[in-house]
């Protein structure tokens, strides 16, 4: 199963590369940190667009899986890969939440990274401001397993794909340096991640507004 998961992860990377190439969306990534493929991380990002999941597969080249809403499995093609390779969670079901948490622990202990959108879905009513408060899962997992957190800022994906249509632009992403979890609480980590990701989203929006005004 592990070899299938690794092969499947590479297939997801290839699918993402082809998707963005065919779509003519030339991804611009500012790697302020390049994750070591041999290390384990918990990647966390803002979630404003359905493009975010494909982008995660594009920019994170580690062996990883998503932990996300079970409803994603209904999306054509992407849903099939999600159902087979990633961890599904129904947040309205306590048993589902507990099961996905245990599966995530197992993944981290086996050396597989996680990618989690801590907002819990595209639920912000004030995009591009992230929904608050974050879900605890990513941060509790990081503390329990002492796994560093890597924040990722998706700067303009919500403008490129605000709903079910795609508008051409250069997708822009920042991969931030990892955060140590040593001696930190869940709430402290949530605030630190929010401030790092949101600051870059706000700065990009301000620069873009000035250039277009």
The portion of residues forming beta strands comes to: 5-15%
Helix content, binned percent = 40-55%
Number of helices: 7
Distance between the termini: 54 Å
Strand order of the largest sheet: 1-7-6-2-5-3-4
Q: Could you report the average pLDDT, rounded to the nearest whole number?
A: 89
- How many β-strands, per DSSP? 7
State the major sheet.
7 strands, mixed
Order of helices and strands: HEEHEHEHEHEHEH
- Rg is 16 Å
The unreliable regions are none
Shape: globular
Structural class: alpha/beta
Key features?
alpha/beta; 7 strands; 7-stranded mixed sheet; 213 residues
Summarize the structure.
The protein is of the alpha/beta class and 213 residues long. It has helices at residues 2-23, 51-59, 78-85, 94-109, 137-145, 157-160, 186-212, and strands at residues 28-31, 42-45, 64-69, 87-89, 113-116, 149-154, 172-175.
């Amino acid at each position: 199963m592990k070899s299938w998961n690794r092969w499947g992860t590479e297939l997801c990377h290839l699918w993402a590369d082809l998707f963005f190439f065919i779509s003519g969306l030339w991804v611009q990534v500012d790697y302020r940190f390049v994750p070591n493929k041999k290390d384990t991380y918990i990647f966390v990002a803002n979630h404003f667009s359905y493009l975010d999941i494909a982008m995660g597969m594009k920019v994170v080249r580690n062996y990883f899986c998503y932990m996300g809403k079970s409803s994603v499995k209904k999306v054509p093609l992407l849903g099939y890969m999600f159902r087979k390779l990633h961890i599904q969670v129904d947040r309205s079901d306590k048993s589902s939440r507990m099961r996905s948490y245990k599966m995530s622990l197992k993944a981290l202990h086996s050396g597989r990274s996680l990618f989690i959108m801590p907002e819990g879905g595209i639920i912000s009513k004030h995009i591009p401001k992230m929904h608050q408060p974050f879900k605890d899962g990513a941060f509790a997992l990081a503390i329990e397993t002492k796994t560093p957190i890597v924040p990722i800022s998706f700067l303009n994906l919500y403008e490129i794909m605000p709903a079910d249509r795609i508008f051409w632009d250069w997708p822009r992403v920042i991969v931030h340096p990892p955060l140590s979890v040593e001696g930190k609480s869940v709430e402290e980590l949530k605030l630190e991640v929010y401030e790092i990701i949101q600051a870059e989203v706000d700065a990009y929006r301000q620069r873009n507004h000035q250039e277009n005004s």
